[in-house]
What does this fold into?
Amino acid sequence: MRFNVSSIGDYYFCPRKFYLNKKMGFELFENSFEDNISGLLDELKSRDFSSPESKFVLDATKNILSEFGISFEDTSAFSMSFGRMFERDFIGNVLSGRIDELLVIGGRAFPIKFRFSKSTSENIWQSDKMEMLGYAYLLSKNFVVDKTFLFLLDKRRVFPINFNSISETQIENLFLRMIKTMKGNLPRIHANSRKCDSCSIKKECYHLDNL
It folds into this structure.
């Protein structure tokens, strides 16, 4: 089976929603900002930092570099790429994902994802954190990774998330549960009804239990 890293966040948020989307083909509509991200990546690949979002990405990247005493103009001290795809084998399954920005400093890799916030909260959801740990895990086979960053474009905020051996085990266990879920039956409706209220397929999901 093949899984995109974004599926980790989906599964952590709601296994039933993950199952309906990945196995039963229910279309989700939460990714309406994906076109905006793709357009931003095109700008960044051409080193066009004129839009408000690309300026934010540039400033946030400079701030990360400054923590290492590196100037953005010192291109020999780091490498930066945008929109690269990576994949990793996991017991016969494939985990893949797009790293919006990959910053490599002195042999350490920092995967960075761009996101428009899903709520009015100033913080990120735990499912977002797990997804970011998934991107760190994706790269950890070929790079030294101990931190990843989530850039919230609309709120102009940067969230650093540490990655270590404990979080690596968390991701592997979560991935095993995802594989088991895909081989099993439809999971129950999530006990947290507030998650259902924000779900784009709530009506279809509840209808299945009435068949």
